[in-house]
Amino acid sequence: MVRINQNYLKLQGSYLFSTIAKKVAAYSKENPEVEIIRLGIGDVTQPIVPAVIEALHGAVDEMGAKETFRGYAPDLGYEFLRNTIAKNDYEKRGCDITPEEIFVSDGAKSDCANIQEIFDADCSIAVCDPVYPVYVDSNVMAGRAGEYDTQTGQYNKVIYMPCTKENGFVPELPREVPDLIYLCFPNNPTGTVIHKAQLQDWVDYARKNGSIILYDSAYEAFITEDDVPHSIYECEGARECAIEFRSFSKTAGFTGLRLGYTVIPKDLKAGGEDVWPLWARRHGTKYNGAPYIIQRAGEAVYSEAGQEQVHEQIAWYLGNAKIISEGLAAAGFEVYGGKNAPYVWMSVPKGLTSWEFFDQLLTKAGVVGTPGSGFGPHGEGYLRLSSFGDREATRKAIERIQKMF
Ligand code: PLP
Predict the structure, then answer these.
(1) For residue 295, is it within any domain?
(2) Same domain as 110, residue 254
(3) CA distances from 397 to 38, 319, 359, 383 (A)
């Protein structure tokens, strides 16, 4: 008899965003006159920049001519894009990463979720709490997370590393040594960062203990402060213990185009085995490659015009984050993040849970945020606000919140 992969039955429903959608729909139905402002979105809203659009048109035309038509993309991505990435994202930052170590893909979500496949089912994993849910869910599917405890909201085989205001939202080095450590900076949902010396401590810890760090740097383009690393390979020794995920989604608005990449240094070993050839093998078997047209679009992000245009867009989003942070701080809230990330992490008033505050904001201000508890137990007491909305709507939302208090 056919049996389902039992691990899939251990997945928890995508409770967070479906519950938000239901609550907002119910409130809107009863109060159709209220203009709802959504500061919960985790997707970009600005159009693709002109330099990229031009490259897309050019690549589409190439596909229509016999001499320039392209079929299957090379397994690891086109050389023109891997060379451009290696030069701009690594060489210019003093990181020793070669084009062969870059695996082009359709985005960071798939890579973050799939990377665990090349490690043993018994490997232990550690994640930040609160956290982007993909790391845990992909390990649940693989049977690595253990059983879910409804009391704690955690899986019993996962090592959760609390990120709190006391530790500046950077977890402490775990006493129980994990095999695989997922780190995400700038962080979703807290919008906070890790400083270079702190990240070096993690790299030293991983090297000493034979762990591998899976470093999600999807929001690096939002970094504005000097001592915040864009890449884990800015740290000494990271080639021996870290894999890095990058995305064009938030960097250049590619959430609908789909492009990202993963770096696996050739020095990286797991239990004495080279990791690079295994991911290359997997990539060749289970992955079709990002389309030529999209890879040309990605290359255009690094052109002079492309850089100017995407930086302008990111600065615009960060302008929204500043309005949110400053407005809420003026209203007496503790706010974190928002300087090097599109997310602001606000504390909820004392005595309220994240969901109770979510309800208050919705019903009293018509503003939608994302309850922090939905990202993990240590997210309780916080709400995530995003800077992806319109400028005027963002301003209006903050004014409405200020009037509530
Ligand atoms: N990593 C983090 C931390 C994210 O927040 C997201 C999307 O929200 C992703 C990865 C997904 O990136 P992509 O669109 O490249 O799949």
Answers:
(1) yes
(2) yes
(3) 9, 15, 15, 14
Domain that holds residue 73: 53-304
Candidate from 17, 41, 105, 109 with most ligand 1 atoms within 8 A of CB, to mutate: 109
pLDDT in tens, 101-118: 999 999 999 999 999 999
pTM exceeds 0.85 for this model: yes
In single-letter form, the type of residue at position 124 comes to: S
| pLDDT digits 0-9 by tens, 282-338 | 988 988 889 999 999 999 999 999 999 999 999 999 999 999 999 999 999 999 999
Is the same domain home to 369 and 282? Answer: no
CB distance 255 to ligand 1 below 6 Å: yes
Please tell me if the CB atom of residue 260 comes closer than 6 angstroms to any atom of ligand 1: yes
Q: Which two tokens stand for residue 9?
A: 């039955």
For the chain, the domain total comes to 2
Binding site membership of 107 for ligand 1 (Cβ less than 6 Å) = yes
Q: Is residue 1 part of a domain?
A: no
